[in-house]
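Quick question, first post here. What does this chain look like in 3D?
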Amino acid sequence: MKSKGFHCPKHTPIMAALLIPGSGYLFLARPMRGLIMVFWMCIFAYITFQLTTPEISVIGRYSGGIAVWIISVLEVDHMVRKRNQR
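> Answer (accepted):
Ran it through. Tokens below.
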């Protein structure tokens, strides 16, 4: 049984996930998962922005969203490795 989506080089989804949050999932034919991750990035970025003071750096203020972004890149990498093992 063939999987959905198109075949692309193994580094393409990872690079896309690094450049645009959630886009790596599109290359892996999981667009809903990408949308969910972007939603949670926005939620956690908003929460950490509201809980921090203006003296904290921009990266610190949006650290919740950045953390979810990093987790999504690692998950895309894991999915690519798993797909290439088959």
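Residues 31-85 form one domain.
The CA atoms of residues 2 and 86 lie 12 Å apart.
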